[in-house]
Write a structure and sequence with these properties.
The chain is α/β, with parallel strands linked by helices and 479 residues long. The protein folds into four domains: 88 residues, no CATH class; 181 residues, Rossmann fold; 57 residues, no CATH class; 122 residues, Orthogonal Bundle (Arc Repressor Mutant, subunit A). It is built from 21 helices and ten strands. The strands form two sheets. The protein has a seven-stranded mixed sheet with strand order 1-2-4-5-6-3-7, with helices on both faces. Helix 2 crosses helix 3, helix 9 packs parallel to helix 10 and helix 17 packs across helix 20. The protein is flat and about 95 Å long. The relative contact order is 0.08. Bound molecules: adenosine-5'-triphosphate and magnesium ion. Magnesium ion binds next to helix 7.
Length: 479
Amino acid sequence: MTKDKSLSIEQILEILEAQVLERTGRYLSKAEKAVIKGTWDNKEYSQIASDSGYSLQYLQTGVGPQLWATLTDVIGDGVQVKKTYLKNVLLKFAKKHYMKLEISKLDNNSLVGKTKVYGRLPRIPYFYGRDEEIGDLKKQIKISQESCIAITGVGGIGKTLLTAKLIEEILFENPNMYDYIIWNRINRFSSIDELLSETLTIFNLHAIDESLSTKISLLLKQFHLHKCLLIIDGFEKLVQVDNYQKKLEYEDFFVGLTKEVHQSCIILTSQIPLEEITHLTTSFSFSSLHLEGLKESSAMQMMHEKGLGGEKCRELIEIYRGNPSELEAVINKIHRFFGGSVERFFEYSTTMMGPQIQAMLHIQFGQPGFLSNLQKQIMVYLAHQMSQDCNDIPFSKIVDDLKERLDIEVSISELITAIDTLEQRSLIETNKQSNQKEISYRLQPVVKKYILVDPLGLVNKEQYLVNKKQNKMATSHFV
Ligand SMILES: Nc1ncnc2c1ncn2[C@@H]1O[C@H](COP(=O)(O)OP(=O)(O)OP(=O)(O)O)[C@@H](O)[C@H]1O
Ligand SMILES: [Mg+2]
């Protein structure tokens, strides 16, 4: 795929007509198309009139003025479109849209401008908001030339889609900015070693039997030779928070690839903050963006475009914290079971759990090394306090209750660390509106529901084991 592929007037007219229809709700008339085509071929009105059979006066006074006004509105970009420079405006406009179309079809091993794009980028059928985040990320990449950026946030909050959108915009704005854009999607069976080997094969380097450090320095060399953007999507799938050896390995990877100045950049998305993933004994510079829900205005746009309306939409956005995948899941259910009425859905005062956040919680509760017993205890405690109509639980109450109820030896510093980690993973939250002096904590409704419902028995199973081992209390006390 190249951006220089020449465009015929027929292709341009097709793209233009779709835009005019979208903006004005009308199709271009035959006479308008004749004027556009003729102008493209550098013809005067008189020539267009004799070629098309329309009268000169009709084209000049009946067609032209309205056409130029429409085109100014649709493709003018703030400049008045006139016959004399229609061709340039049209070329610019069509190239832009052609590029967008091509980028949206990106597949394995494509070429956009001079950028070789590897890996399967996610499709972006629609995208709401995130202008600020995209602007910040672009600045970090272009201006501060950050060589590692971590995008973190809970499951389904939009990390992957945001990164894909960022790539789309980078390619669109400057398809020659990078030599390589490599999208690596991590799965449960991946490893850093494999990730390195696979990435090296893109540069025709086959280093399967080499040590990890050799592979890292080989890749670093490529980062010097070529300007690369390496995306590692879903890094948390590699994580073993309690495995010291692995943490050192991850640290070697990041430190090794960022220790020297080069123009390449790694972007990783993860549900777990990078500080927790690596051991960070050595300093290594990276920036992070912790992604929260969509802004209310963007989430409202999403709801409206998906056919929901009314004041209750705001409440829905607040309950699901603007998490787009959660909103999508609940919107679908409202259409299916409540005839598209948000009000009727609220009559049942229930909370829906979307698949992506559930998948994240299954892993957090079910996979060893993600949440410590203390962290799980804190979350279960908060869920039960909240189910008794206690919405924000002050820190001192958490300390007192946990000490008394759990009867386990926990130092304040351990508790603070555990709470901090939970907050960084967006598993618990503070009430930002509260003006109480003492900090208090709560769970977002979906997380609370997961703990209370415990769909796979992963919450209770762990609680039971902890208490049984310590011979303290029965599970029923907690759930
Ligand atoms: N800005 C957005 N506009 C519209 N829809 C969005 C947006 N962001 C995310 N979504 C929707 O939410 C879904 C989840 O987004 P995404 O896969 O990017 O989340 P994630 O944070 O990467 O989740 P995970 O941690 O599970 O990988 C998308 O498939 C899309 O349907
Ligand atoms: Mg993702």
